[in-house]
Design brief:
It is a single chain. This protein is of the alpha+beta class. It has a domain at 31-104: 2-Layer Sandwich (Alpha-Beta Plaits). It has helices spanning 2-27, 44-54, 84-93; strands spanning 31-39, 61-66, 71-77, 97-104. Strand 2 (61-66) and strand 3 (71-77) form a beta hairpin.
């Protein structure tokens, strides 16, 4: 009888810990949001050239370029998050100057006026 209680207790504890670890895994953000302040964007043609380069970033989606503010936003799966250095290289290779790169677990609000 005592062994049955230990068996049941052990089974319940394993089930609880499995459920807890599964819940923790689900809490991790699945996307990383990226904002890049870029100097040198002066026309739609410039923005298109940069967009073509950034679309090649592994997993990049929802790419938006605010030409007036000089801000690019995009998102990538968290497990494919690029490094700041690799993003700077992409922007530089497209002919522009990257100024500030921000990463976030939630989408960015409107483009900041002065940052």
């Amino acid at each position: 009888m005592k062994n049955n209680i230990y068996y049941i207790l052990a089974t319940v504890l394993v089930m609880i810990s499995f459920g807890y670890s599964t819940a923790l895994a689900q809490d991790k953000p699945s996307k990383t949001y990226i904002q890049i302040r870029v100097d040198g964007l002066s026309c739609a043609f410039c923005a298109y050239g940069l967009e073509k380069k950034l679309k090649k970033v592994d997993g990049a989606s929802n790419l938006h370029i605010d030409l007036n503010a000089g801000i690019v936003t995009l998102e990538v799966p968290t497990d494919k998050k690029p490094t700041e250095e690799s993003l700077k290289k992409v922007v530089t290779d497209a002919g522009f100057t990257p100024r500030k790169i921000k990463f976030s677990e939630s989408p960015f609000k409107k483009a900041p006026k002065d940052d």
